[in-house]
Amino acid sequence: MKTKLGLLYGGKSAEHQVSLRTAQAVIKALDLEKFEIHPIYITVQGQWIKGPQLLGPVEDVKALEFSNGNQLSPLSLAPSLFSAENVENSALDVIFPLLHGPNGEDGTVQGMLELLNLPYVGNGVLASAAGMDKVIMKNIFAQAGLAQVNFVSFIRNEWEKAKEEAYNKVEVELGYPCFVKPANLGSSVGISKCTNRAELEAAFVEAFQFDRKVIIEEGVIAREIEVGVLGNDEPKCSVAGEIVPKKDFYDYTAKYEDGNTALIIPADITNEEYEQIKKMAVKAFKALDCSGLVRADFFLTKDGLALINEVNTMPGFTPVSMFPLLWKHTGVEYPQLIEQLVNLAKERHAEKQNIKYTF
Length: 359
Hints:
Mean pLDDT is 90; it is low at 250-258. The chain has helices at 16-29, 79-82, 87-90, 108-115, 125-132, 134-143, 156-161, 163-173, 197-207, 252-256, 271-287, 322-330, 334-352, and strands at residues 3-10, 35-42, 48-50, 70-72, 94-98, 151-155, 178-182, 192-194, 213-218, 223-231, 236-245, 261-264, 292-300, 306-312. The strands form three sheets. The protein has a five-stranded mixed sheet, sandwiched between helices. The longest helix has 19 residues, at 334-352. Strand 1 (3-10), helix 1 and strand 2 (35-42) form a beta-alpha-beta unit. By secondary structure, it is of the alpha+beta class. The protein has three domains: 3-120, 3-Layer(aba) Sandwich (Rossmann fold), CATH 3.40.50; 131-146 and 221-350, D-amino Acid Aminotransferase, Chain A, domain 1, CATH 3.30.470; 151-218, Dna Ligase, domain 1 (2-Layer Sandwich), CATH 3.30.1490.
């Protein structure tokens, strides 16, 4: 029997368009002999719209934005809880959240799916929430003993009350260059590289447009190395890849629009460096209690020291995205990768059903 797979994409997030491109790529990769594809589009206003079952690839990404579909309540994804009629035919076997950023990758949707007791691909509530907030994530990494760059953070209220003190703290503790980022966004949205006070002030204004909390990280001279992690309790790592941006850093445009970046897979690193990175990636995965998948990003200094930058709990699946490319070079083709993720979702869900809730 085919697996009824609900693809959840779009979302009320600045990364809405990234999610659409991810959904388009996943649809193209799915084996229609094994899966029924049921698209569920979340508009930028937060409305949920169920589209018709897809019987093949979608060539134009705009076709995934259903303007006249059937608006639904998220609760209807679990018909067994609310209806005794036609449950077997209407229930989805697994939900695949292809959502990036807040209101999707941050544990909110995952919490709803947990309450509905539905199997879903990827990380749970805790890992999603902690992985979304760069400040919380880095604090957990520090507790786990993972080496990383120095950083400071501010919430909007404290910055507005004492801007000069905030800028001074960055200059004293981090210096230039430094990077200012919204704490709860991915895909390099709202990130600025700063080399002086004027750029720093502008960067704070830019970042606070996207979040109430910002993080500022020390700039380091290092190579950007990434690995994919796949699994539940016994995660495995892909080969390592290197990002060589032609600009100052790997920004949104380079990632998704002009492709102005070289992706080198496998990365030209030593076995010792790879083993160090792989060990740290698995440690970070377990520290956040991740499941399914993450992409772990590192800085590698000229002395061979690996510093963990972050993990992405829902890495992009676009044709130019690093995560699927890493696994392809490891020997796992895109369709196999999708199947493994769905199986990991079923495995984790089955394990949760054995938890005892009464005593």
